[in-house]
Amino acid sequence: MNFFNLLKIAYRALLRNKTRALLTMLGIIIGIASVIAMVSIGQSSSKSINDQISSMGTNLIMVMRAWQRQGGVNVGSGNVQSMTERDVAAIRANCRHISMVSPVVNASGQIVYGANNWPGSIRGGNAEYLSINKFEVTSGTNFSDDDVRNSAKVCLVGTTVVENVFPQGESPIGKIIRFGKIPFKIIGVLKSKGQNQMGQDQDDVVIAPYTTVQKRILAINYLHMIMASAASEQVAAEATAEIESAMRIHHRRQGATDDFQVRTQQEMLNMMNSVTGFLTVLLAAIASISLVVGGIGIMNIMYVTVTERTREIGLRMSIGARNSDILRQFLFESTILSLIGGVIGICCGLLLSYGVSSFLNWPFMVSGMSISISFLVCAATGIFFGWYPARKAASLDPINALRYE
Question: In the chain, which end has fewer C-beta atoms inside a 10 angstrom radius, N or C?
Answer without folding.
Answer: C
